[in-house]
Amino acid sequence: MKKKLGIIGGSGLYDLDGSIKPIWETIDTPWGKPSDQVLTLKFMTHDICFIPRHGRNHTISPSNINYRANIDALKQKGVTDIISISAVGSLKEELSPGYFVLVDQFIDMTTHRKKTFYDEEIIAHVSMAHPTSIDLIDLCCKSLKKQNIKYKKGATYVAIEGPHFSSKAESNLYKSWGADIIGMTNMPEAKLAKEAEMRYCTVGMVTDYDSWRFKDDHIDIDSILKTLSGNTILAKKMVKDIIDNLDLSVNGNDDTHRCLDTAIITPRDKMTEKTMNKLKTVAGRVLFNKNLD
Q1: How far is it, in rounded angstroms, from Cα 117 to Cα 188?
Q2: Distances in Å between the alpha carbon of 97 and those of 19, 37, 39, 53, 226?
Q3: DSSP E strands, 136-278
Q4: CA–CA separation, 287 vs 293, rounded Å?
Q5: Quick one: CA dihedral 247, 23, 100, 116, positive or negative?
Q6: For the stretch 235-254, what's the b/e string if a residue is b when 16 or more beta carbons lie within 10 angstroms of its beta carbon?
Q7: Treating both helix axes as pointing N-terminal to C-terminal, what angle do 67-76 and 280-287 enclose, rounded to 10 degrees?
Q8: How far apart are CA 107 and CA 166, in angstroms?
Q9: Which of 152, 183, 211, 217 registers the highest number of CB atoms within 10 A of its CB?
Q10: How far is CA 114 from the centre of its chain?
Q11: Does the predicted TM-score (pTM) go above 0.90?
């Protein structure tokens, strides 16, 4: 399988030195429109695909993001591995604003989002015991270390609905669970990537301490935006170094790229052509391979 990297994140990440022929392309999916067009940046030996999660003008709230369409669109472009970059709040004193956090576990507190591709006729149960890729995490860590960016490898991310921040009571509850960071966008993104057999990695950029630590009445949005701007500059350095030293090989026992082999439980004779075609991009490798019956 030819490997290809996709990046989901803010629009500021795409202005990278060394790229040629940037192409914005409209992609149609069975799940509706993605957040925006997909951008392909060509480098010397790689094509890298980007999609702005909230749209280029940040007009889509976390709960209204069409996560299924975003993942489908990236897979249509041949993406096999996704690095997700997003702003997060810290639930740990030591994870101060400016830290980059590599996530290996999630707690999904969202309730209003479409979380699976397999909710109609064809049912699949994909394991989320290990939701992120160790290989992609290591790839990011090497870059962060080289760029002298503060980072933590291994963390639990609490996903909330948004767009509002947590109450102090909620924030303290999540902190009591032992979670490290809190955000609004990486679920169900991580689940859908796994269902589409795409390895996934979350890079959480800490912008604030969430509400558990604040003595004032509210989180300072201006301070968050200022920190986010600085984080974006660092993230661009990380992404550029990753591209320059890209290695998407599978070094461990990660079976993400073939996890659907045993996940789909609906008998093939009960599947309609309409639903199979709807899932063609994310699950076609299995649905149209009779050798896996």
Answers
A1: 11
A2: 30, 31, 29, 22, 10
A3: 151-153, 156-159, 181-183, 199-208
A4: 9
A5: negative
A6: bbbbbbbbbeebebebeeeb
A7: 60
A8: 15
A9: 183
A10: 15
A11: yes
- 192 in Cβ contact with 79 (< 8 Å): no
Cβ count near 64 (within 10 Å) = 13
What is the spatial distance between Cα 206 and Cα 228, in angstroms, rounded to a whole number? 8
The whole-angstrom separation of Cα 191 and Cα 116 is 7
Cα three-residue angle 56-60-65, rounded to 5 degrees = 110
User: Which amino acid makes up residue 221?
Assistant: I
**In angstroms, how far is CA 254 from the centroid of its own chain?**
17
Give the architecture-level CATH label for domain 86-292. 3-Layer(aba) Sandwich (3.40)
Determine the length of the chain: 293
Residue whose entry in the numeric block shows the structure tokens 């149209």: 288
Q: Are strands 38-42 and 20-25 parallel, antiparallel or unpaired?
A: antiparallel
The pair phi, psi for residue 21, each rounded to 5°, is: 50, 55
Active-site positions read: 208, 210
For 168-207, write each residue's pLDDT tens digit. Answer: 999 999 999 999 999 999 999 999 999 999 999 999 999 9
Residue 292 pLDDT > 60, yes or no?
Answer: no
Residue with tokens 């509210």: 218
CA distance 90 to 213: 9
Contact criterion met (CB below 8 Å) for 156 and 107: yes
Task: For residue 216, name the pLDDT band (cuts at 50, 70, 90).
Answer: low
